[in-house]
Design goal:
There is one protein chain. The chain is an alpha/beta fold. It folds into four domains: 129 residues, Rossmann fold (3-Layer(aba) Sandwich); 166 residues, P-loop containing nucleotide triphosphate hydrolases (Rossmann fold); 82 residues, Orthogonal Bundle (Helicase, Ruva Protein, domain 3), CATH 1.10.8.60; 71 residues, Arc Repressor Mutant, subunit A (Orthogonal Bundle). Helix content is 46%, strand content 14%. The protein has a five-stranded parallel β-sheet with strand order 2-1-3-4-5, with helices on both faces. Strands 9-10-13-8-14 form a five-stranded parallel β-sheet. Strands 6-7 form a two-stranded antiparallel ribbon. β6 and β7 form a beta hairpin. α12 packs across α14 and α18 packs across α19. The radius of gyration is 32 Å and the shape is elongated. The two termini are 46 Å apart.
């Protein structure tokens, strides 16, 4: 879906139409009127108009029917009805895409509505494009990536899923090992059966065997009834053993037996139970080194790593950072209905230069924190915690370079207003030059409304598309 910033004016009263057109053109907007015998909707489609300002008597149908047809032509288009003060109008505006303005028109109010409408459309378009990008790069729920290493991982998971082979997933904390395990399960023939996750490091050693294999009534103090273990729960499904490197030696022996014979004995029982379970294990520890130091059984290691998979850390897949940020941002905005617009390009660049020791989990936590603390607007480098900034980022965030921070005051003093005005001119021109003189993007860098920036350019005689001499002449 394309940007829709052109404004179409439909009014049989040429004076009213020309007034609106002249005012909005002066304010920096592109305005058009229907040409010749072209219908309003043909013009909207051809000119990609995002706003239609219309007098109800000039549209040839009821406002309701007109708006329905307008939405079919351009779903994001907004309708502003300029109605005579005493004219009956049975139409309910929604304050997002439909508005009613009574004549005589308050032009400042009209500009405010137009600006707010375009901002709303821009945000909607951005969200639609972001959703489309996320959807096209989503492998499974919460597994997102377009980098080479992630595409290779996705391909491996697809191949692994069709077998019943035991899988060992290795990777640093926070990389998404459980997400990979769930993806394997969902793509396998066992997807309609249980996926049972179990963290080997989260259960006390004395309870670990019972949790895995279950127990019979009276097998130990507190065993008041028979209880199924994780293996039984996962029968004909998938058992995910997370943090397998933390499993004690005595349980490693029992797990090895289950992998070899596909049967186990509940605690306190003398009868073996057959089980059909696919095992996926995961660890953030280096099992090869643990095997060498005899902290992990070599035979169990080779039983688990029939198919080894390594999840890359975030620092090796930085092409995915923007994609992940947008995905988390949309999730948290939906939950909290916050007004955060997104992360600035400079902010994304800074995040891409960070090493991410906490990996994707750390990035997710950062995005959630920024949504809560920022509340609304664009997240900029100034909003980031200092640990994410490199030394050159910190200096870049200081608008007063060291050599300019110290001012040599003459005996007669300085004119503060003139100094502040010159500094403001310099910041505006820096923002324009950085964005190749794109007013909208420059306004975002300066945290200004587009219309406010345009007014400042006109007032200061800093012409759009101008050259550096504009500033030099202004400051002399």
């Amino acid at each position: 879906m394309k940007k829709t910033e052109t404004i179409l004016i439909v009014d049989n009263d040429s004076k009213s139409r020309d007034l609106i057109s002249a005012f909005l053109t002066y304010k920096g907007y592109d305005t058009i009127v229907p040409r010749g015998n072209s219908s309003v909707f043909e013009t909207v489609k051809e000119e990609n108009a995002g706003i239609v300002i219309a007098e109800p008597g000039s549209i040839g149908s009821s406002p309701e029917k007109f708006y329905e047809e307008l939405k079919k032509t351009e779903p994001l288009a907004a309708l502003l009805l300029c109605s005579p003060p005493d004219a009956p109008l049975h139409f309910k505006p929604d304050n997002e895409q439909t508005f009613i303005i009574k004549k005589p028109i308050d032009l400042e109010n009209l500009e405010s509505i137009v600006n707010r409408t375009l901002e709303h459309q821009s945000l909607k378009l951005q969200n639609l494009n972001t959703l489309q990008s996320i959807k096209s790069h989503t492998f499974s729920p919460n597994m997102i990536g377009k980098s080479r290493v992630m595409l290779s991982l996705f391909d491996t998971i697809k191949k692994v899923a069709s077998s019943n082979a035991t899988v060992l997933i290795q990777g640093e904390s926070g990389t998404g090992k459980e997400l990979a395990a769930r993806a394997i399960h969902q793509l396998s023939d066992r997807k309609n059966r249980n996926f049972v996750p179990f963290n080997c490091a989260a259960i006390p050693d004395e309870l670990l065997e019972s949790e895995l294999f279950g127990h019979v009534k009276g097998s130990f103090t507190g065993a008041y009834a028979n209880r199924a273990g994780r293996f039984e729960m996962a029968d004909r499904g998938t058992l995910f053993l997370d943090e397998i490197g933390d499993m004690k030696a005595n349980l490693q022996v029992k797990l090895l037996r289950v992998l070899q014979s596909r049967e186990f004995e509940p605690v306190g029982s003398t009868k073996s139970q057959k089980v059909d379970v696919r095992i996926i294990a995961a660890t953030n520890r280096k099992l090869e080194e643990m095997v060498e130091s005899r902290d992990f059984r070599e035979d169990l290691y080779y039983r688990l790593s029939v198919i080894p998979i390594t999840i890359p850390p975030l620092r090796e897949r930085k092409d995915d950072i923007l994609l992940l940020v947008n995905n988390f941002l949309l999730n948290f905005k939906d939950e909290r209905k916050e007004g955060v617009l997104g992360f600035s390009d400079e902010c994304i660049e800074i995040l891409s230069n960070y090493d991410w020791p906490g990996n994707v989990r750390e990035l997710e936590n950062l995005v959630e924190r920024m949504v809560i603390l920022k509340d609304r607007g664009l997240i900029t480098p100034e909003d980031l915690p200092e640990k994410y900034l490199l030394p050159n980022d910190r200096s870049r965030m200081n608008p007063f370079p060291a050599q300019e921070a110290a001012v040599d005051f003459p005996d007669e003093g300085i004119c503060l207003n003139t100094a502040v005005d010159r500094f403001e001119n310099r910041l505006i021109l820096m923002a324009l030059e950085r964005t190749n003189w794109n007013k909208k993007e420059a306004a975002m860098l300066l945290n200004l409304k587009r219309t406010t920036l345009i007014e400042k350019l006109k007032k200061k005689n800093l012409h759009f598309g101008g050259k550096r001499e504009c500033y030099d002449n202004q400051s002399n």
